[in-house]
Design goal:
This protein is α/β, with parallel strands linked by helices and 219 residues long. The chain has a single domain, classed as Copper homeostasis (CutC) domain (TIM Barrel, Alpha-Beta Barrel). It contains eight helices and eight strands, in the order βαβαβαβαβαβαβαβα. Helix 3 runs parallel beside helix 4. The longest helix has 16 residues. It is globular, with a radius of gyration of 16 Å. The chain starts with a strand and ends with a helix.
C-alpha cells in the first residue's frame, strides 16, 4: 500500500490521478503538515474516487495542544467527516512526549468507523513499544513512523522490530525520507507492506507522477 503525502492541491491531483493507493492531504509542508483547506478537500472528493486521509493538526511545532486548540481539532474532524473524509491523521502527546490517551481516544471515537492514523509524533515518544501498545488500545488502525529516527533508513531496525511484533495488530506505515531509490531496501529489510512518501524529487516542490510510479513498482 502506497500513501502519498500531499501538502497542496497540485500534488494531491497528481497523486490521485497516478497509481498511489491513497493520499494524506494536509497543508504547510514547512510546518510538517497541518489541517488543510476544507474547500480544497471538498473539490478533490467531488472529482476523484481514491481515498483521501485528512490531517487534523491546528499548528506546527510540538504535538501537545491547549484546550482551545483541542476544541478546534474536534470541530475540524467533524467537518471533514461530514464532507466525506476516508480517514484521519493526527497525534496528541503529553508534555513529556508520551501518548495523550484520553484526547486521542476522544478523536478516534468522534471518527467512529473512519480509520485513524497516528502520525510521526509517535517518533518523539521515549518508548516506542509502550507508545504503540497505547495506540492499539485506543483504536488507531495505523501508525506513521520512521522507527523513532529522523528517517526510515536510519530507523529501519526499529521498524523491522515494530512490524514483527505489532504488524498484525496495527498497520505500520513506513515513512520519513522514503523514495524510489530506497523503498526496495526498506521493504526487504523491514518486511513492511505499507509505505508513505511525498514523492517529491530533489530540488522540486510538487509530487512527481514518475516518482509515484517508481515507488509503486518497487513494492
Amino acid at each position: 500500500m502506497l500513501e502519498i503525502a500531499c501538502f497542496e492541491i497540485t500534488s494531491a491531483e497528481t497523486a490521485l490521478r497516478s497509481v498511489a493507493d491513497r493520499i494524506e492531504f494536509c497543508a504547510e509542508q514547512q510546518l510538517g503538515g497541518i489541517t488543510p483547506n476544507i474547500d480544497e478537500f471538498r473539490y478533490l472528493k467531488s472529482v476523484y474516487r481514491k481515498p483521501i486521509y485528512v490531517m487534523i493538526r491546528p499548528k506546527g511545532g510540538g504535538f501537545y495542544y491547549s484546550d482551545l486548540e483541542f476544541e478546534v481539532m474536534k470541530k475540524d474532524l467533524l467537518q471533514f467527516k461530514k464532507s466525506g473524509a476516508d480517514g484521519f491523521v493526527f497525534g496528541i502527546l503529553n508534555s513529556g512526549n508520551t501518548i495523550d490517551t484520553h484526547r486521542n481516544k476522544v478523536l478516534v471515537d468522534l471518527a467512529d468507523d473512519i480509520p485513524c492514523t497516528f502520525h510521526r509524533a509517535f517518533d518523539r515518544t521515549p518508548d516506542l513499544d509502550v507508545a504503540i501498545k497505547h495506540l492499539i488500545d485506543i483504536g488507531f488502525k495505523a501508525v506513521l513512523t520512521s522507527g523513532g529516527k529522523s528517517s526510515a533508513m536510519e530507523g529501519k531496525e526499529n521498524l523491522r522490530n515494530l512490524i514483527e511484533k505489532y504488524g498484525s495488530q496495527i498497520d505500520i506505515l513506513v515513512g520519513g525520507g522514503v523514495r524510489s531509490g530506497n523503498i526496495s531496501e526498506l521493504k526487504n529489510f523491514t518486511k513492511g507492506t505499507h509505505f508513505h512518501s511525498s514523492a517529491i524529487p530533489s530540488y522540486e516542490v510538487f509530487a512527481s507522477d514518475e516518482e509515484i510510479k517508481k515507488l509503486k513498482k518497487s513494492i
